[in-house]
């Protein structure tokens, strides 16, 4: 067992884990943060995307012990005081989800896209940047609309963005 | 239309939990004392099992039990079943081979279930599985659809020539006669590529046994939990129906693959009692590729006869359908009654004859996948129609228009009675939205850039609203396909609707609530939709075949009518009026011609306190149930137009424009309907351009991960132009036709018709990968574009 | 995943010592090749030495006529580096084409070159830019470093510490992605140096990344797409799989090479 200490959604967490525990397993099984999903075993589907020190990563391809001393944000940690994050609201408003399984990873990736590429995103940029997230339900049409709208809304809500 | 009633683009109620990570999928459930199951799967496509030595595994750390097919047999657990009987032309029943949940004596595909290890942790279960010693006698395998019937390999003893059935539909003599007098005959050979459904949530099952009450609970990723319970109890015999609770909570997509009753969930329920621990299994994606039921896999030769006026006069089709190594739950219905009855398409074709040979191979079982049979039929019809138009030198849109059915009801030569439609209206709208008139200009502009542009049509029809019980029963179905609903009005006036439909992305919590809000005049927030739990919902047939709106909501509508009728009785008592004078309007029960009225909530309260009920003629309470059995299939139809641009240097096909005009009848929530269309198109484009399950000759699945099986990504697709036309469905109370499968049915021929148009020849198979398109472009001797 | 012992050194020296002591140890860099392989139980090292806390392995530096990238520098850092974009924009563009954004946030240049996946992108840049792979023991020219599929000049326990790229006059990378995996089905990196042109191809060769001398000579004479007319790589040396057979790969090498030259030439 190896000791791992990290901050998850603003809370300090310390645990002894089998080194082979993936970050996604740690979040889901130890912390019961089941919003982060697992959809494949080859690091492609993106259902497990979380932010590690502010960057979007695939939690299925990181050992929990590698995240020692890191700051992790999951889908459960982005709404502020009961208010949805603008990207969460945009996915709902634009019907950017159906079964909801890929959605947490999509939203976490979408926020990361805005953090890197700004809030004025054209369709091709969004589609290219969603390279690492698979959705089987929506055909991406409404996800693309949601990301564009969420990006604009994030620009209007700078405080929330900073809190992320 | 109110803001939340029928026709309003209401934002989904369920999304609050999904966007915040609070959805609850099967793998999110954990039960006290839970152990983990891991399945040892066959590495061979075909082998006899001489022996299984579980001894070394049982002593591994954390192992609770190691179970095999022998244990299943000893406990009298039956095999998995196929619930639709198909008879061959000669009247003989289909040849169903044994399908044990854990192999008994033989394995028949890579991924077949050999043994299960139950351990304290999943890692320990996997470690122990490696210690199981299986002595296989490896046998030659057959994987090729077209070759299976000729192979010396026999997958099941009961099925000589690996043939499940030789089935047919239509009128052979009339069809032969039509071809004899044809002016022109168009011939085509098609492969409908095998697909892996790949909902992003992999399957999972969590079985639990309570010795105190001798009851079982199964949490499972199911589209139809009641059917799962029925099959697990009545046929497989794992637990009595009244002692088994099946819960299908949030389910992360299904597309058909979660209809079926699989080995893993069977084993989890059975093993939970055996080891007296909750047993949880969660598929990883690699297992899903191997062992989820696949879709499609047809090899077809088809011919279309036309007369001197360019009218289609006959269609004959021969299809070989690969059903894999075992018959999955509804496998036999897919290439038969969900396929051939759609071969008339939108066209007035007087004579049709279709033969289907279904074969076993050493591959994963094949069953319904989004569209199920109807995409295969549409691919045959729409590729042939396009090719015929080209061979006759006619505009493909106008050739279609000339052959459209225009009078309804229309009896096809292949069972179906189309109730209503206006195909030309959809075509006109689609041509307009797609800017068809300027296509040649765009083609020339592409050519100037060294690119090949093509346009392709798909004028599809589907039979949805599955299905009238009497009709499907006469065709071999083992179940009726009605739906049930119960509307519980609470004393506070809030409403719970218990439905046998199951939502795994379709948004029932919103659309069903819209219907209730619309009918009862109460706010949508006052309505809860309950589904996916056999202890709560009386019974239900589940969600597939675009049936939840047409069938599931019709049942709710029926129950709501009963609630209103009962409410009138209650109001009559309270308002001291005659029942016949009570009107229900805008959420109020009023006495006609007066201003005396009670709100819906007041009536609900009065129904439960029953203070004003006189005598015995009225029972307290306000709860009504209904079963709705449709009288006909529904027939959604539409026109999709795909425009592609091909880079002949690399073979990359880019979809430049997609236009869809669909007639789904009455629409409850256009936002959700459009979303269903988008998703369906993406899956159809996936089939046409990207996806294909490939087995090597030895039966190993070559495309066994997302590294090799190409899923559509955002960058592979355009935004879609979606339009609607509406002819209300006359056979259900809401006028709904269904929309869930349309895109997946319409899209593949539209894409391939566009590519063949661009290339100028027909020789391209699905998936039209860059390599395939490049090679086809070479073959067409297209001039290489200047760099 | 099989069980393993986990080590988290903070210096290259400590990492090397650990590797020397442990049986069957593997270094963990970004982990985006190794961890998926371990998850599928296709690899099961007894020890994992995580280089993630070794600060000296990170960073990008421009010194004179070279860009030096620390082995644990992530693809996203290379893609976003102003120094790289100014000196060798093609290298930043290549990094931007690896995997997906999440992979680029974790995957490292050191992991990529040490693994030498035949479809990885960086090996093409290393060969074409005539890079030097620096280890804790020595400096190895790229031409000597890549020795066939998943095979490099690295000794057991040797740690890649840096990759040093000479700044080329002009360079570009053209990648044709495997539609499913997004690895390179064919990737061609073309670099024009003061002393000649180098062309390196990844994804296509049956023996991993390789150079195309005929193209290099032709481009040395005339750095323009048409200089490549009539030059083909031999089909029988190309890889073949369900996504692309050898003939298609050989064809794509030509197409991607022309596109790379075109892009490089356009850099003015």
TrEMBL record, chain A:
The keyword Transmembrane helix does not apply. InterPro entries: 2Fe-2S-bd, 2Fe-2S-bd_dom_sf, 2Fe-2S_ferredoxin-like_sf, 2Fe-2S_ferredoxin-type, Beta-grasp_dom_sf, Diverse_Oxidoreductases. SUPFAM superfamilies: 2Fe-2S ferredoxin-like, CO dehydrogenase ISP C-domain like. One of its GO terms (molecular function) is metal ion binding. Residues 2-78 form the 2Fe-2S ferredoxin-type domain. It comes from the Bacteria. Keywords: 2Fe-2S, Iron, Iron-sulfur, Metal-binding, Oxidoreductase. This is 2Fe-2S iron-sulfur cluster binding domain-containing protein. It comes from Microvirga makkahensis.
Automatic annotation (TrEMBL), chain B:
GO terms for molecular function: iron ion binding; oxidoreductase activity. The lineage of its organism: Bacteria, Pseudomonadati, Pseudomonadota, Alphaproteobacteria, Hyphomicrobiales. InterPro entries: Ald_Oxase/Xan_DH_a/b, Ald_Oxase/Xan_DH_a/b_sf, Ald_Oxase/xanthine_DH-like, AldOxase/xan_DH_MoCoBD1, AldOxase/xan_DH_MoCoBD2, AldOxase/xan_DH_Mopterin-bd_sf. This is Molybdopterin-dependent oxidoreductase. Residues 20-140 form the Aldehyde oxidase/xanthine dehydrogenase a/b hammerhead domain. Pfam families: Ald_Xan_dh_C (PF01315), MoCoBD_1 (PF02738), MoCoBD_2 (PF20256). Keywords: Molybdenum, Oxidoreductase.
TrEMBL record, chain C:
Keywords: FAD, Flavoprotein, Oxidoreductase. GO terms for molecular function: FAD binding; oxidoreductase activity. The keyword Oxidoreductase applies. Residues 1-170 form the FAD-binding PCMH-type domain. PANTHER family: XANTHINE DEHYDROGENASE SUBUNIT C-RELATED. This is Carbon monoxide dehydrogenase.
């Amino acid at each position: 067992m190896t000791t791992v200490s990290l901050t998850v959604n603003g809370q300090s967490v310390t645990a002894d884990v089998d080194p082979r525990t993936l970050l996604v397993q740690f979040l889901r099984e130890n912390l019961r943060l089941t919003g982060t999903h697992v959809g494949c075993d080859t690091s492609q589907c993106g259902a497990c995307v979380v932010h590690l020190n502010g960057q979007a990563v695939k939690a299925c391809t990181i050992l929990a012990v590698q995240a020692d001393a890191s700051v992790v944000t999951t889908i459960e940690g982005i709404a502020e005081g009961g208010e949805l994050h603008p990207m969460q609201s945009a996915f709902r408003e634009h019907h950017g989800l159906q079964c909801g399984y890929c959605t947490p990873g999509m939203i976490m990736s979408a926020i990361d896209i805005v953090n890197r590429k700004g809030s004025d995103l054209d369709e091709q940029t969004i589609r290219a940047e969603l390279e690492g997230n698979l959705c089987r339900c929506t055909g991406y049409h409404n996800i693309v609309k949601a990301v564009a709208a969420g990006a604009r809304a994030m620009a209007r809500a700078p405080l929330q963005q900073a809190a992320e | 239309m109110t803001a939340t009633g029928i026709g309003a683009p209401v934002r989904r109620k369920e999304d609050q939990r999904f966007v915040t990570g609070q959805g609850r999928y099967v793998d999110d459930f954990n039960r006290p004392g839970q152990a983990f199951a891991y399945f040892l799967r066959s590495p061979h496509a075909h082998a006899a099992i001489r022996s299984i030595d579980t001894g070394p595994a049982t002593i591994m750390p954390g192992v609770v039990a190691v179970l095999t097919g022998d244990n299943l047999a000893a406990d009298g657990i039956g095999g998995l079943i196929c619930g639709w009987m198909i008879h061959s032309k000669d009247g003989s029943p289909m040849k169903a081979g044994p399908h044990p949940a854990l192999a008994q004596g033989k394995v028949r595909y890579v991924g077949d279930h050999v043994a299960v290890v139950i351990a304290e942790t999943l890692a320990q279960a996997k470690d122990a599985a490696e210690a199981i010693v299986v002595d296989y006698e490896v046998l030659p395998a057959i994987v090729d659809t077209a070759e299976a019937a000729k192979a010396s390999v026999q997958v099941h003893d009961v099925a000589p020539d690996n043939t499940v059935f030789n089935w047919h539909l239509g009128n052979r003599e009339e069809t032969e006669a039509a071809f004899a007098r044809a002016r022109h005959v168009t011939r085509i050979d098609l492969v409908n590529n095998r697909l892996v459904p790949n909902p992003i949530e992999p399957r999972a099952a969590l079985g639990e046994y309570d010795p105190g009450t001798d009851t079982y609970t199964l949490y499972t990723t199911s589209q139809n939990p009641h059917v799962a319970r029925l099959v697990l109890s009545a046929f497989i015999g794992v637990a009595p129906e009244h002692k088994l609770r099946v819960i299908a909570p949030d389910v992360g997509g299904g597309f058909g693959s979660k209809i079926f009753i699989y080995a893993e969930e069977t084993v989890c329920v059975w093993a939970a009692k055996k080891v007296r621990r909750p047993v949880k299994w969660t598929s990883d994606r690699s297992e899903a590729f191997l062992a989820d039921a696949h879709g499609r896999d047809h090899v077809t030769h088809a011919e279309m006869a036309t007369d001197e006026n360019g009218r289609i006069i006959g269609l004959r089709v021969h299809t070989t359908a690969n059903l894999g190594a075992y018959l999955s739950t509804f496998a036999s219905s897919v290439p038969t009654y969900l396929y051939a009855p759609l071969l008339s398409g939108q066209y007035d074709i007087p004579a049709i004859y279709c033969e289907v040979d279904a074969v076993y191979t050493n591959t994963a079982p094949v069953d319904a996948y989004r569209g199920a049979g109807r995409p295969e039929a549409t691919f045959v019809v729409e590729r042939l129609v396009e090719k015929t138009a080209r061979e006759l030198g006619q505009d493909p849109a106008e050739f279609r228009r000339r052959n459209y059915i225009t009078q309804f009801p229309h009896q096809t030569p292949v069972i179906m009675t189309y109730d209503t439609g206006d195909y030309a209206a959809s075509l006109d709208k689609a041509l307009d939205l797609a800017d068809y008139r300027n296509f040649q200009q765009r083609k020339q502009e592409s050519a100037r850039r060294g690119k090949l542009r093509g346009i392709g049509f798909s004028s599809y029809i589907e039979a949805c609203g599955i299905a009238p019980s009497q009709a499907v029963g006469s065709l071999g179905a083992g179940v009726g396909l009605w739906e049930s609903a119960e509307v519980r009005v609470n004393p506070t006036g809030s409403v719970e609707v218990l439905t046998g439909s199951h939502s795994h992305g379709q948004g029932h919590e919103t659309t069903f609530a819209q219907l209730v809000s619309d009918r009862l005049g109460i706010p949508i927030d006052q309505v809860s939709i309950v589904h996916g739990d056999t202890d709560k919902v009386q019974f239900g047939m589940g969600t597939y075949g675009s049936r939840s709106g047409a069938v599931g909501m019709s049942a709710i509508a029926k129950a709501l009518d009963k609630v209103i009728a009962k409410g009138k009785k209650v109001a009559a008592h309270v308002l001291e009026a005659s029942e016949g004078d009570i009107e229900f309007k805008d959420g109020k029960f009023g006495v006609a011609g007066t201003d005396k009225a009670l709100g819906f909530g007041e009536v609900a309260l009065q129904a439960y306190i029953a203070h004003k009920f006189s005598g015995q003629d009225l029972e307290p309470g306000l709860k009504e149930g209904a079963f709705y059995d449709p009288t006909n299939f529904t027939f959604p139809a539409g026109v999709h137009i795909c425009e592609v641009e091909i880079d002949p240097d690399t073979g990359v096909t880019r979809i430049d424009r997609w236009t869809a005009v669909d007639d789904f009848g009455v629409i409850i929530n256009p936002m959700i309907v459009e979303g269903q269309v988008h998703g369906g198109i993406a899956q159809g484009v996936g089939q046409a351009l990207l996806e294909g399950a490939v087995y090597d000759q030895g039966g190993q699945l070559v495309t066994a991960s997302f590294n090799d099986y190409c899923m559509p990504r955002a960058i592979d697709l355009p935004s879609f132009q979606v339009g609607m036309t509406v002819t209300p469905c006359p056979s259900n109370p809401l006028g709904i036709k269904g929309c869930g499968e349309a895109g997946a049915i319409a899209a593949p021929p539209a894409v391939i018709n566009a590519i063949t148009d661009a290339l100028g020849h027909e020789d391209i198979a699905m998936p039209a990968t860059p390599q395939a398109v490049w090679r086809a472009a070479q073959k067409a001797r297209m001039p290489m574009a200047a760099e | 995943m099989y069980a393993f012992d986990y080590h988290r050194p903070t210096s290259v020296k400590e990492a090397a010592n650990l590797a020397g002591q442990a049986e069957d140890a593997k270094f963990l860099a970004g982990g985006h090749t190794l961890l998926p392989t371990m998850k599928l139980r296709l690899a099961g090292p007894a020890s994992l030495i995580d280089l993630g806390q070794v600060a000296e392995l990170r960073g990008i530096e421009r010194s004179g006529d070279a860009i030096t990238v620390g082995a644990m520098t992530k693809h996203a850092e290379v893609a976003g580096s102003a120094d790289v974009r100014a000196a060798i924009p093609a290298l930043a563009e290549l990094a931007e084409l690896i995997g997906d954004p999440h992979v680029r946030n974790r995957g490292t240049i050191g992991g990529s070159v040490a693994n030498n996946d035949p479809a990885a992108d960086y090996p093409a840049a290393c060969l074409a830019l005539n890079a030097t792979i620096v280890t804790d023991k020595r400096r190895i020219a790229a031409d000597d470093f890549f020795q066939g599929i998943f095979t490099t000049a690295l000794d057991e326990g040797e740690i890649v510490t840096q990759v040093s790229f000479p700044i080329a006059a002009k360079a570009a990378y053209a990648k044709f992605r495997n539609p499913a995996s997004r690895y390179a089905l064919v990737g061609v990196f073309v670099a024009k140096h003061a002393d000649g042109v180098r062309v390196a191809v990844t994804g296509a060769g049956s023996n991993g990344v390789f150079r195309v001398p005929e193209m290099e000579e032709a481009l040395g004479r005339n750095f323009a797409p048409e200089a490549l007319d009539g030059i083909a790589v031999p089909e029988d040396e190309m890889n073949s799989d369900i996504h692309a057979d050898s003939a298609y790969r050989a064809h794509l090498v030509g197409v991607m090479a022309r596109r790379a030259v075109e892009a490089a030439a356009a850099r003015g």
